[in-house]
Amino acid sequence: MFRILPGVAAVLLACSSSAVLAQATAQPQLRGGESDASADVIVTAQKVEQRIEDVPLTVTAVTGQRMADLGVNSLSEVALYVPGLRIQEQSANNPGFVIRGITSDNGSAQQGARVSLFYDGVDISRTRGAYQDLYDIERIEVVKGPQATLFGTAAEVGAVNIISARPRSGTEANLTASYGNYDRTQVSGYLNAGSDTLAGRLAFAYKYRNGYVRNIAGSPNVANQNQGRVDQDDLNGQDQRGVRGSLRWRPTGRVTVDLVGTYDGQGNPGTAFKSRVFAPTGGQTGDYGRAELSGSPFSAAVLGDSKLGLKRDV
Fold it and tell me: How would DSSP label each residue in 173-217?
């Protein structure tokens, strides 16, 4: 079990646009959300505003509307629609980002990342804090190839930028919910209110699913090597919540100030890392057969819980 205790609040003060990346095929948006296919696509992939055809970088973006249309709501799913990008969500505490076949999945606090990850302009590249749930997102942008001169030494393979939806004038709200097998529950939504000068936005998401890989370790009803000890929860479940508050102030047409605070937390029961050589007691080596993974006898004293799992608050 891993634990991250410090809360992290991202405070962003930005003048003009805060966009960092874009895509040649991204459809430009006008005020009010209407699209104009004849308008130039303006990007700031080199920290200045340029037309996309003038930027000598390989850049891809997936908009929040596109993700909603596809039913995408996780980092690994987004990567399926970005050529050359793979994101391995084996654990929210240690996601792996792969660009053009080069990975950045070392969880060491001493080793720098090779793929920079930015959340609303804040660098969260270290793997223990890199994972963020996706809800009420404006777009996700990926720039491929070495970008150390633009995004720091951690961008030797590339950079990923997650941009949340900003407050805008008017009043609107949205609520989405779904339910599936293994008690799969998803609820997300947002509330937006304000004027052209001052606007606020509150967004949230909750995801839950029971584990679908039976963990027999410690079970009093099934023969196992730790029978009678702590009965472990079933693996590959999910218990995740997030909330984000945003405030936008535009005193003039040339100045925009954004204040964003985000909380992301998980209480997942653990990942089914199974051997394909050694089977659990009375089990199989298949990926979805039952597992036999127990916690350490020192887990409760050192980590605060005797069961396997992840408790993470960022």
Answer: EEEEEEEEGGGEEEEEEEEEEE-SSEEEEEEEEEEEE--SB-B-T
In this predicted model, what pLDDT tens digit does every residue of 144-188 receive, in sequence order?
877 766 776 677 788 888 889 999 999 999 999 999 999 999 999
Pair 23, 61: CB distance under 8 Å: yes
Distance in angstroms (rounded) separating the CA atoms of residues 314 and 31: 33
The whole-angstrom separation of Cα 115 and Cα 161 is 11
Q: Which two tokens stand for residue 105?
A: 């999945």
Q: What is the pTM for the complete model shown?
A: 0.78
Lateral strand order in the sheet of 85-88 = 85-88, 96-99, 102-104
pLDDT digits (tens, 9 = 90+) for 184-239: 999 999 999 999 999 999 999 999 999 999 999 888 888 888 877 888 899 999 99
- CA-to-CA dists, residue 176 to 33, 181, 189, angstroms: 20, 18, 6
